Each structure stands twice: as C-alpha cells, then as structure tokens.
Amino acid sequence: MAAVVATAAEAVTGLGLGLAATLAALRSGRTAVAPEAGLEAFGVGAAAHVVPLPPTHAPDGPTRVVTPHGTLLELVARAAHGQANLGSVPREAVALMIGLGMVDSPAADLEAAVAASRGADGAFDLARFFQGGFRAIHPHWPLRMLNNVVVGQLAADLDVRGDNLVLAAEADAGARAFLEAREALDSGAALAAIVAGVSETFGPAALLRAQLRGTPGLVLGEAAAAVVLESEASVKARGVIPVGRLVGGATGFEPSDLGPGPSADARVRVVREALAQAGRTPDDVTLLLVEGDAVDEADARRAVFGRRTDLAVVAPSVALGHLTSGGPAVASALALAMLSTGEAPSTARGTPRALKRGGVALVLASGSAGGAAALVWEGVP
Amino acid sequence: MARQARPADQRVVVTGWGMVTPMGGTVEATWAGCVEGRSAVREFAHWDSRGLPCRIGGEVDDAVLPPDDLGLVAPATRPHRLLLAAGRQAAAGADLASVARRDRIAVIVGGHAGCPAPTDIERTVRHVDEAGRIDVAGLAAEPGYVDRNFHLRRCDHAPAVLAHDLDARGGVTAIVSACAASAQAIGEATRALRDGRADAVVAGGVDSHVNFAGFIGFVLLGALVKRYPSPEKASRPFDRRRSGFVMSEGAAVVVLETLASARARGRRVLGEVLGYGDSADGFRITDVHPEGEGARLAMTRAMADAGVTPDEVEYVNAHGTSTPTNDPGETLAIKRALGEARARQVPVSSNKSMLGHTIGAAGAVEAIMTWKGLAEGIVLPTINYETPDPKCDLDYVPNTARRMPHRVALSNSFGFGGQNACLCLGAAPSEG
To answer: How far apart are CA B126 and CA B139, in angstroms?
Structure first.
C-alpha cells in the first residue's frame, strides 16, 4: 500500500489549546495531571482535564447538537481543515475518519426526568418514569447519546460529504481510523481525509471504566487531535507542503493473560507488520511513542528494540493522561511535530533528545479488550 | 464490467453467513418468512413497555441465542448473545476454523452495544448534587452499576468476545455509525481484503434497542411508528399511511474472503461484494437532505467502485424505514442515482416492512437478504403497501415476493446523523 501524506496536524490537550502549545509545555516539563478531589476511591486521585475551550462556532439549537466530544472534535478538525486548506478539495472527496471515546449520558440531561419520577417519599419510582417522567428528558439527549452524531455535525459544520467512519471505543480504534483513511485514499474513494481522535470526556461512567480497565494508577485525560492525510497526487496537485508521511500501520487482536489489553505477542506482530509495510527495520525507528501502562507493552518493546539506548521513548500519557480513542491521534500529531522540530521532550524527567529531521516514529496503541495497533510515521527531511 | 476485470485476489466474496432476527434464528428461517411476506412485528412480550406511546417491535426468540453465561465477569448482554449466535453460524458455514493464519482473520462489526436500564439512569442522578458535582465513589459503590457500565455500553466488547470465540486475531473494529454501521463494516472489510490486509474478515452488525432506555431515545426523537391498525401492519415503507419506523433487534454476520482464497479453500461462494460507497450528508444534523444528496452520493460511489452502470442495476434493497421523511428522500435519491427512467424500471423493496429496523444490524441483514435473492432469483416484497404516496412513485414490489432472476443489486443503509452507505452486491460468480 502506498504511503499517504500528512498535510496538517492539530491538537487540544490538557497542556494547551493547540499542538504547538502542547509540545512547548511538554518540553518545559509541565504536566496536565493534577489532583482531583473525589477520586481517592479509585486509588488515583488525579486527572488531566483539557484546557478551557473557546466557544464552538455556533451554539446548540434546534438544528445543531453540541456535545463535549463534539466541541473537542470541532476545534481540532476545523483547525486542521484550515491548515491544509481543504476548502480547495471538492467537499465530496474529503473523508472523516474518527476514533471516538465512549459517549456517556450527561447527568444534567436526565435530572429533570428523574425528579419528575420521584414518588411522595422522594424515591425514584420506575412506574412514574415509564408513565411519563421520561418525557422531561432533554430533547437532544438521544442525539447526544448516538456516537455518530458528533461526526454528522462536524460534516455539516465543515461542509464535507466524503467517506466517513466512527470507530469506538479505545486507542486501537483511534489507530484504526488512520488505517481506514489510508485505505480510502488508496482506493480513490477520497482525496483527503481528516483523521481525528477524541478521548472520553469526564464523568462517572468514564472514571469507572478507567478503574475497571484494571491498570493501577491509570489517570484519565481529556484531549483530541486531528491529522489531515492526502494522497501524494493530491498534495502535488494542490501544492501543499507535507508535514510527514504515514508509511505503515497494522492492527491485531489477542487478549493478554496478564491483564487488560493485548498480549506482548500481538503487539510485536503489529509493530513488525507495520514496519514491514514501511520497508523499515526497528533500527530505523528513532522515536517511539508508547502508552506506558502495561507490562505487555514493555515486553513487546524489548522484543522489538532490545535495549537500544539511542531510541527516544516518549509516553504522552505521563503528562496528558490516558486518552483512550484520542491517544493515537494526539501521539501522531506530537510525533509529526517532534520530527519536524528535531527534538523529543522527555516525559521521564530526563533531558530532551535530538531527533534526525525526516526520521521515523512509531506510535503504539491498544484497547483493553485485546486490540493492538501500530502506526509508522516519517518526518519531512 | 470492472468486476470482471478484477483479478480473483481482488474480488471479495461471501463464504459463510449467519443471522438471528425476529423472524427466525438462521438466514434460511428469516428468508423463508420474508419470501412469504410475513411480519415479525408483535406486541412486546419480554419487557415492560407500559406508558410508552409505541409498544410493538421485533424481538428475537431467546431460544435461538446462547446463554448469558459466557464466562465473562458479568452476564453477557443481549448484543453479545445476538452477535455470537450469528457469528458462529457464519464461521461454521465458511469453515473458518480451517484458516491457518489466525492473525490474518479480522473482525469488523457495526452496532452500539447495550443500553442502560432506567435504574442505571436513576443511580447516576442520585449521586449528583445540586451544583452538578458527582459523587463518583458513591456511584461506584452502587451494586451492579460498575459491571453494567463497563460491559453493557462498550461498543467494542461484543465484537472482541466474538473474535476471541472464533480465535480471530487480525484486529477488531467496532463501527458506531447508527443504521449505516454494518453496511460500512462489510464495505470496509471489502477494502481490507482488496488491500491484502487480511485473509478473511468476519463482518456484520448487531443491535438491540428493544428495551426501555433504547426505546425512549427514539420516542423522544419522534421517529417511531405512531399509528397502526395492528403490529403486523405498522411497518409500511413507501405507503402513504406510514408514520414512523418499527424498532427491532438482531444480528447478521458474513465471512468475506477473496475469490482466490475461496477457491483455494474449496469453499462454496454465496455472493459477491462488487462495490462500496459511503458519504456524509453534510446537512443539518436533525434532518435528512431534502434532495437525498448524501444517499445519492453513496449509491453513485458504490456503482463506480463496482464498475457497473445504472442500467446494470436490477434491484435496490432500500433503507426504507417507513418514516415520513426517509422514504420520499430515498426515492428521490434512487432516481438521481439511477436516472429517472431507469429508476422506474428497477424493483425497490424494504425488508424492514417485515423485520422492523434492526438499526446497526440492518445493513448486514439486508445485504444477506439481497444475496439470497440474487441466488434464488427472487425479489422480496414490501408488505403493507396499500396506499400509494405520490412522493414515492417507484416499483416497491408490493406485498408479494417476485420471481425475477437478477445479477446485480444495491443495498442502502442510511444512518441517523447523516452517514450513508451503499453496497453493490452480485450473485455468486458462475465459475465460483
């Protein structure tokens, strides 16, 4: 399969409203992870909230549905769309491939219905709920609960009509979105694709799922990122400046015996397949972006790279929290920026590493059900 | 045609299928009921729907499903059981167990996992104070809530359980684009096989919203059927007296591989994916495009991908939801995609008139019904078609199945929210 070209990348994270701001914060050693009252029961006590966001370009209304996921997605996708000047691509040829963290019901949307369903003793009465209490639910609740609605809204906002997919629910799905975009470009179904990943947004269900993934100390983060991918032909025809290339990628599935997530074998397989697609070897990789939350991942890393000391290893989750479906997009955007600036910040209180411009970065991703994924990026020399 | 020009390792075919619907527990049972023009819509029998304005739908017989004890940490949800039932049938039919490279078998499933119960909703709100702060620890201590949230609502969990059950290690993809989801799953599987990224793909869809929380969302949207003389008469796509869709549940799964692979394995070919197209409406989120632009684009792209012209399309399995807005919009889109003259010659029918709307499973259910029709030389009917609607003026195969040999068909799936998918499907290659 041919490589595809990245022509824009943008991110919104707990460290900044933008990719450059996020990278600068990482280089200065800052972290978005902060104590969070009320989470002590989970043995974590911390979270990485996204920075305060500007208002979306139009508010929620009778014909527009705004959700927490949608706000994040719109910010990064609109910015990437602008950076890549996608307005010059026919709207029917612009694809949207989105990895979306789990969508949960905002408690506030349901509160009125629950209140309307309480009996004289104040207790929730299911019969009252069935008999009409539910009608007090916010009218947009059903739409906010449909995972795909944020993408439909984005298509309307950006006026694009190409291929589209909404994939859920963890980082393996976020990586898969890049590979689906590559296939759409390769098959000629699209000329350009906005690939985005959005994390879960904070709420009780998200926190409980984070706990249930079974990784001690897992800190949940909020973030989103978007990368524009295009075919080489489209980039040449439009005269756009590349920011990198996606040269390989693979997914696999095999639950680990050690805990949630894929086995080390599955992780090794996808890395080797992705590198083979790219025509690269492990020795060519100069930058490795890991999730940093599983023994299997560490085992896989050693199996592929041995004990190489010249490999820059970055774990964005240390500073940004665990980003579920948003992780691969954020890591990919950061990788492109690092390959461009020629420096990888340390997320382990070490010193930054110099990177060869035009080098190769490998992004690892996984899902708690057992999915593994790897993406191989090349910087622009 | 381009499909003849594609080499065998680029042609994607079906070698196994499975299905559980309100009509029956297999593809054959569902097909037989649809050929007879029977409705599987009934008054709800398995959950308390008192107080709701619509109390009918399609429910799968529990007897055709595996038990809920699947060895998970919590009882399996309805989507887990539906998907496993259909997936195991498909895998057995394709003899998937004989595929040597398990890391080259992918699973791609469209659907939306389970729904929270009203008690889950109440539990959540019980732990929110007047300032909107959530007492997460208190919520976590609620018996049963934690497991439900983890397993019930994870869209990728049932597909992962299916992959584990079938020992498929080539990656699990969960697509969550509403009613377009499983058509997209089949389409994306087709691309993966053409790209050589897998040796076989288990693709399909599952959904079960025949429960209170699943239902009230659509009640609030005003999308469900509002008036009907009897449950069996409620789903009436393209009929002037249609008043909304009928909720249903089910799962449908196919095993796809290249024609070259099927031949090498000596498998019987059941049908072929000739082409796939999808699109975004890019219109208002709460309305369908008045000229069916997104739907037209999806159909046009599927035909282009297949290398067929409108004159070669002999049947359209419509999305046909029985809602006031979908059916005329889809009619217009078919006319725009095929051309007005050709559209008037091509039979168009909706399986939802008999099965109801299985949401995320609908695209895969209807693809299999379309392949069966291609194999049997039969076009399924649109039942309950009694009063023509001037805005729906095509041949909808009213009420009775039609014997009609055909080789190429389109199957439409349009998602609420603006995602559209179309599969261009072909009969099994005669040499296959």
So the answer is: 8
